[in-house]
Amino acid sequence: MTEREIHPRRDRREDILQASLNLFAEKGFHGTSMRDIAKAADITEGLIYHYFASKRDLFTAIIEEYSFLPLLRTLPELAGQLDLRGLLLVLARGFYDVLRQNTQLTRLLLQEVQIFPEEKEAFFADAVGESISELARILDGRMSERVRTQVDPQVASRLFFNALLAFFVEQEILGGKHLLPADEQVYIEHLVEMFVKRLGSGRNGPRPV
Question: Would you list the DSSP string of the chain?
Answer without folding.
Answer: --HHHHSHHHHHHHHHHHHHHHHHHHH-STT--HHHHHHHHTS-HHHHHHH-SSHHHHHHHHHHHHSSHHHHTTHHHHHTTS-HHHHHHHHHHHHHHHHHHTHHHHHHHHHHTTT-HHHHHHHIIIIIHHHHHHHHHHHHHHS-HHHHTT--HHHHHHHHHHHHHHHHIIIIISSHHHHS---HHHHHHHHHHHHHHHH-S--SSPPP-
